[in-house]
Amino acid sequence: MRAQEITFLKLVQGDKQFQVPLYQRTYSWGREQLKRLWEDVGELVDQHVSGESTAAHFLGSVVLAPGQIQAGGVQRWLVVDGQQRLTTLMLAFAALRDHLKESGESRAADRVHRQILVNEFHEGFDHYRLLPTQADREAYTACVQSRAEAGGGDNIGAAYRFFRGALAEGQEAGVERWVEMVETVLKDLLSIVEITAEPGDNVYRIFESINNTGVGLSQSDLLRNYVFMLLPKRGERVYQELWLPMQQSLGPKNLELLVWLDLVVRGNQKAKQSEIYREQQKRLQPLAGDEDALQREVAQLAERGRRFLRIIEPNRESSASLRMVLERLAAWGGQTHFPLALHLLDLVDTGGTTPDDAAEALLYVESYLVRRLICQTPTTNLNRIFMEAPKELETDRPAAEAVRRFLSGRRRRWPSDEELREAIRSKPFYWSGRPPQRSYILRRLEESYRPTEPVDFDKASLSVEHVLPQRPAQAWFDLLDEETEGNQSPQELHDLLVHTLGNLTLTGDNSKLSNHPFQRKQQILESSALRMNLEIASAERWGKAEIMHRADRLSERATELWPGPIGGVKPTGDEWPGWTELRSALVAMPSGTWTTYGDVAELIGSHPVPVGAYLGANTTVIGAYRVLTVEGKISPSFRWADGNDRPPPQDLLASEGVRFDSLGRARHSQRLSAAELATLLGRDVTQPAVRDPLPEGEDEAAGERFRVQLRENWPDTYAGVVAALDFWRRQGGHVTYGRNEETSCFPMLDAGTSRRPHLVWPVGIYPVSGTVEVVFQYLKTRSPFDDTEQRRELLNRLNKIDGIDLPEAKLELRPSFPLSVFARHGDEICEVLDWFVGVAALDLARRG
Which alpha helices (H) appear in 498-633, and where do they start and end? Predict the structure, then answer.
């Protein structure tokens, strides 16, 4: 085999084609991998803009084997390994081409198309430089050909849409020639090692050996081996006294994290966790031959390791004030704050600041993170901000003041008091961050009441509760109808209020509260130990006025708990962040879907009228034509900008696959709700479907609650649902019940072993709202349904049942069908469940 380092442009140029063999899985990169790649691209572009010398970024290897060559045809290469990288970059170039085309740069778009994506003078499949497996081929060629259905609901479409959004967002920064520099980076500054097999090599054996090589050495393993290779005389003593205790106290993952943090705190703000061995080796190489100096380096790393332990295990911290704020940051979760926290502990231990000063500095860190989450400030560059902090902090002032000044920088987006108040009143807080972070904020707000007998939150089993229910009974809508404005419906008002912070609290009685009228909820909340619940219970009613009044009270507490930036004034002249969020949501929509002005307003914390006005003045926003009225019609006021020759919106949507009835109304099943838009943006909009099993008594009670709710709300469907669940149990599955509001039900299957459970489940059943969710969103992370084709097969089998209409564009979401289908087609649903169990069993046998 031959190997050479090569740029992407040189790899793909010429009359050649890269074919992904059938034995490879379908394209599987998700949002996290795409974000990491784009961050690397953005960093290289930034270096280009600032005039820094730019070294190529190593992307990984691609293993190729020569394929058959036909006379006059292209040179074919089988992609033995590296199809994910190749496919991702091709999709990035397809998005770049379309971005250039829509920006009026038709010549540049044509150049990208011919240089990268196609073999210009060949037809049929030979026309494509990359030919994925059959399962991905249709979605991929739609992107390369710029067909209407490009950017569908599978992984290929999601990656294309990701890059369209990233390019649009980057363009808005206004950097001159920014897109041109992105093209240069993608073509010439992403380095790939091309490994080429010889004719006659057994390609499948090569694939097997690459993908079944066991556990490789970690970055910290490589560093350890390098360090002790340089310590021939003192190695054993240094290992026993310094390295081994550090390794044992931290564990493998935290040790690797420490080695990276060590680089960052030393000022290497661009260090990547994937390259820490190379960077540390480069730093230590000049010390080769000086065992004294190397021993000091290991001692310093071990000392820093003990400080790092105080961050991840705050009970080790001796200062009460510092321990308290470290505990709060540990409860918040994540690693974003680690570089700055470690730097501050370095200062404390070396006498550069006091524990109280460091505690105040970390309070500003907590405030920065909390305010950004409440205001739903994009997390782009958040990690980079905290990596820059150790090097950028001013050293001629107290640490707390320096941290506050640093985080108050305009580009770092620390929301002001005014922005915080606006967000608490209007933003869907229930979709912000992760569930533990939402619970943390409500817990801190409860603690701000300073009750004489505080709740022990570590022992209490509390979760977030909607006072105005997510799925309310008619009595709630009657109440809201009194407060609607203009043409607003009670449902629209409900959607704008239900997920805001003013309507949320903590309780351990979710299943009791359910969607009962407020008077019944009052009785339950009055017995709560939480002050915030007693305050809610004291209200005479619970509608818009009460929710807004509570939001304002919580705002006052929030601004006291979490101080704002220096100045504390909302920046003038900046665009409202909600419009950025709107553009991100629309570009994330798969082709063949639509949404409403109300859904977008609910997502961004606005109102349908200003959303309509914004889109009316900005019809060039990607996906603007996909926003329709609540009836599913094109808004009469929608007009393309002058000079735009695109087809009418309805024709464009129809070409993507959106179906309209004779009255011009788009099919409801293809509509994306606000929650689905939030999911596409990567937000955690639902509580996890799978939790620790309920204790036996509670499980029986939950099952009985489910059956009661099902019988009361859907008596004609009751027998069909129960029969299907009994059938599921006979196939070896079990049933799990939810704990929130209505008692949901999940037919679960453990397709793993006693040592390695592997839970899969096809649907979630909701007995109050009368819906059955098909959980593609969860299945896409679980074998064998992480394969798009298996999810598509499940969708197709369900769609053969009368009454079920699941759009293919929702293969990454949780589309639903009516519970009433069980009444007439229970046997057909059981056939689909039987197929599901069989596929999972075959996968288990394959995995051994």
Answer: 510-513, 518-525, 531-537, 544-561, 577-587, 597-604, 608-617
In 3D space, the residue among 351, 371, 42 whose CA is nearest the CA of residue 175 turns out to be 42
pLDDT tens string 623-663: 999 999 999 999 998 888 877 788 999 999 999 999 999 99
Residue 610: what are its φ and ψ, rounded to 5°?
-65, -30
Q: How far is 799 from 73, CA to CA, in rounded Å? A: 41
CA atoms within 13 A on the CB side of 835: 15
Between CA 128 and CA 155 the distance in angstroms is 19
Average predicted confidence (pLDDT) for the chain: 89
Beta bridge partners of 504: 466
User: Which tokens in the block code for residue 678?
Assistant: 């939030």
CA-nearest of 578, 588, 608 to 596 is 608
The conformation of residue 648, written as its DSSP 8-state character, comes to: P
Rg (CA), the chain: 29
Which residues does 666 contact at the CB level (< 8 Å), separation at least 6?
Answer: 594, 628, 632, 633, 653, 658, 659, 660
Q: Comparing C-alpha atoms, which of 159, 180, 133, 147 is closest to residue 36?
A: 159
Could you give the CA distance from residue 374 to residue 369 in angstroms, rounded to a whole number? 9
Tell me how far apart the alpha carbons of residues 810 and 411 are, in angstroms, rounded to a whole number.
36
Taking alpha carbons only, the member of 620, 584, 579 closest to residue 162 is 584
Buried b (16+ CB within 10 A) or exposed e, 255-280: bbbbbbbbbbbbebbebbeebbbebb
Token reading at 455: 């709740």
How many Å apart are CA 736 and CA 700, to the nearest integer?
A: 10
Let me know: does 492 contact 603? Beta carbons within 8 Å: no
Distance between CA atoms of residues 349 and 316, nearest Å = 14
402 CA to centre of own chain: 32
| Cα–Cα dist 515/512, whole Å | 9
Among candidates 131, 140, 17, 9, which has minimal Cα distance to 67? 17
**Within 13 A of 567's CA, how many CA atoms are on the CB side?**
14
Output the CA angle 722-725-731, nearest 5 degrees.
Answer: 145
- What are the structure tokens assigned to 7, written together? 């740029």
In terms of Cβ atoms closer than 10 Å to its own Cβ (0-12, 13-18, 19+), residue 15 is middle
Pick from 63-67, 583-587, 727-731: least confident = 63-67
Per-residue confidence at 119, pLDDT binned at 50, 70, 90?
Answer: very high
Tokens of 659: 């179906």
Q: Would you state the structure tokens that stand for residue 826, as one six-digit string?
A: 């229970």
pLDDT band at residue 215, thresholds of 50, 70 and 90?
very low
What token pair was written down for 223?
């560093």
Which of these, 19, 16, 20, lies nearest to 121 by C-alpha position? 16
> Is residue 194 within 8 Å of residue 68, measured between CB atoms?
no
Maximum Cα–Cα distance across the chain: 87
What end-to-end distance do the CA atoms of the chain give, in Å? 32
Alpha-carbon distance of 595 to 590, in angstroms, equals 11
Distance separating alpha carbons of residues 812 and 793, to the nearest angstrom: 14
Please return the burial class of 563, using the count of CB atoms within 10 Å of its CB with bins 0-12, 13-18 and 19+.
middle
Helices (H), 30-105: 31-50, 83-102
Return the SS3 of 620. Answer: coil
Whether pLDDT at 501 is above 50? yes
- The answer to whether the beta carbons of residues 83 and 211 sit under 8 Å apart is no
Distance CA 601, CA 18 (A): 44
- Burial degree of 703 (CB within 10 A; 0-12, 13-18, 19+): middle
For the record, the structure tokens of 566 come out as 């220096």
- What SS3 state is found at 802? coil
Contact 843, 751 (CB under 8 A): yes
Contact of 689 with 738, CB cutoff 8 Å: yes
